[in-house]
Amino acid sequence: MLKEQAENIIASARRAGVIPCAGLALLVSVFLLDDRACAQANLHADYVISFARIAVGNVSLTADIGSAGYEMSATGRVGGAMRLLANGEAHLTARGITAGARLTPTNFASKINSAGDPLDVTMAIENGNVSELTASPPVNDGAALSDENRKGILDPLSALLIPADGIDDGLTACQRTLPIFDGRQRYDLQLAFKRFDKVTANTGYAGPVVVCSVRYHPIAGQWTSAPLVKYLAESREIEGAFAPVAGTRFLVPVRLLVTNLLANLLVQANRFEVATQRQTPSNSSPNSPR
Fold first, then answer.
1. Peptide bond preceding 218 in cis form (omega within 30 of 0)
2. What's phi and psi for 133, nearest 5 deg?
3. If you ran DSSP here, which 8-state letter would residue 139 be given?
């Protein structure tokens, strides 16, 4: 029934010429998520990082998203032509609670192996506020972090899940600010709707995406002279393309482009696969935070 209603609404809008075809397809996919709200979605995505059109690294992302909770893991490395901005390997994990299109992070951990800037972080989060934090080495430079900088935050992995709840969210999902704290740095990513587009991964997803402009705004904890911070802050333009994760009410990036006079940075998914299965409603979920 819900599917038929969605098809009728979209068909009417299309006949009236209200929205473009790419937007239609995306709105259909977002609207039909309601019919699969009890699904368990398993996302596997692999990204290639290019700097000045030269491959310099890669990132692998997995996300298990259920009706009650989510778990995420990302592993990446970068070097080569980009080593003056960043060089090394990183592993990040996050866990939290989901309720429809809302998510609440509960745990985050990251380990960065870099000769110039290693970091090991574990963090517990309650209602958006950091309740426990261990960071090694501790913050001892840059803009000082205050207690307020640890409130109302998202961890970097959870911030990748962009809520898309309802038929209009394909248009409005980008209208938000992501307040991110990674255990050492507090910054905002300010998103704004830019356009609809289409992408085709080598493996997995092919279809419409929402493209958002992204503004990087450092707040505290950053070393303002750090090359990567300066590169992002001084970039002429940053944009991210977000694809729907089937069976959920979330979008996840499939492409990030940073335009800079030094050289452009591109992070592009060559694999974006989602497997879904029905969940049996219960008081607990295997994805519930432990």
1. no
2. -150, 130
3. P
Q: Which amino acid appears at position 64 of this protein?
A: D
Contact (CB, 8 A) for 195 and 170: no
Rounded to the nearest 5°, which phi and psi values hold at 46?
-120, 135
Q: What is the pLDDT, as a whole number, of residue 6? A: 41
Per DSSP, what are the bridge partners of residue 72?
63, 94
Alpha carbons 242 and 240: distance in angstroms, whole number: 6
The mean-pLDDT minimum among 6-20, 131-145, 146-160 falls in 6-20
- Residue 204 in this model has a pLDDT that exceeds 80: yes
Q: Determine the straight-line distance between the first and last CA of the chain, rounded to whole angstroms.
A: 37
Q: 10, 21 in Cβ contact below 8 A?
A: no
For residues 37 and 129, the model is more confident at 129
**From CA 198, how far away is CA 7, in angstroms rounded?**
20
Q: What is the pLDDT of residues 259-278, one digit of tens each?
A: 999 999 999 999 999 998 76
Q: Assign 287 to helix, strand or coil.
A: coil
